[in-house]
Design brief:
Chain lengths: 200, 84
């Protein structure tokens, strides 16, 4: 079960004033607020934690077929390792742990969250339209599973979660899309999926 | 406060965050903040804070959780106003 989230940092700066009264309290626990207030780059920390929460909630939605909720405080982030370009950690959603890995660039932050550790997560972040990124993911999946690209259709379930279908049956859903401002990204996990696709 | 009046106030609050202007023209009870208006999720926090300021109420986490449509917001606002 996978989720991802990309934040266009320039757009976030323009669109959101996280310093406004009450904002941090609605979104971040005291522990998370401490990560932010003790950081030398507070903006980066805010959007890193934000993308961890959003990515993990998407994975959680997949796991339990849940609708969208505005419940950022129900997701508790822990950062276990952080460099100037990457971060890894966990997000705890009601006792369910999701493992996150984030790429921190000057213009964006992208996080993938996975329920299972070491599940071979691959990501792509592009300064391109969402349809280009979707096509990129479909061709990657087609190649990996040796199926013809035109046989795969991208669909959405009732909850709005995307999946790939072949001959009208669902064959692959271990992927996630996210877009914000200039950037569109996908994450996918290819481990343990091959047999399912080949059998279908 | 009447439902109509609340919806009128909400429309003003939400306007600066709307990404889909076409859907905003049909703003009403069934409008979904994310699916229809395509409001980005960080701005949903702003909407919650703006609603708290405008209506002078405190929205707890359990209520915020379900604030996905205009109808949800109206119900939360009415409930909180009655509690006061």
């Amino acid at each position: 079960m996978i989720g991802n989230d990309v934040v266009d940092l320039k757009l976030a700066e323009r669109e959101s004033n996280w310093r406004r009264k009450g904002f941090l309290k609605k979104v971040f626990s005291p522990t998370e607020q401490a990560y932010i207030t003790t950081s030398t780059d507070q903006d980066r920390l805010v959007w890193l934690l934000w993308s961890m929460k959003e990515a993990a909630y998407k994975a959680h939605q997949r796991m339990f077929d849940l609708p969208r909720r505005l419940n950022w405080l129900a997701q508790e982030c822990r950062i276990s390792n952080m460099t100037s370009e990457t971060a890894s950690g966990t997000v705890d959603i009601k006792g369910n742990i999701y493992y996150t890995s984030s790429e921190i660039a000057s213009e964006y932050i992208h996080t993938s969250a996975e329920k299972f550790i070491d599940s071979g997560v691959k990501s792509g972040i592009f300064d391109a339209s969402s349809s280009e990124v979707k096509n990129e993911l479909i061709s990657k999946v087609a190649k990996q599973f040796e199926v013809n690209l035109i046989e795969l259709q991208l669909k959405k379930d009732e909850l709005g979660m995307p999946f790939l279908s072949r001959n009208n049956s669902k064959i692959f859903d271990s992927f996630s899309f996210s877009g914000h401002g200039r950037f569109n990204a996908y994450s996918l996990s290819l481990i343990n999926c091959e047999t399912a696709v080949k059998q279908s | 406060m009447e439902t109509k009046e609340i919806i009128y106030c909400l429309k003003k609050i939400v306007k600066p965050y709307v990404q889909n202007d076409l859907a905003f023209q049909d703003f009403g009870k069934d409008t979904d903040f994310i699916k229809d208006l395509e409001i980005n999720s960080a701005n949903l926090v702003d909407i919650v804070l703006d609603v708290e300021d405008e209506f002078n109420i405190a929205i707890d986490n359990d209520s915020m959780d379900k604030m996905l449509t205009v109808k949800d917001a109206v119900e939360i606002i009415k409930t909180k106003q009655q509690e006061q």
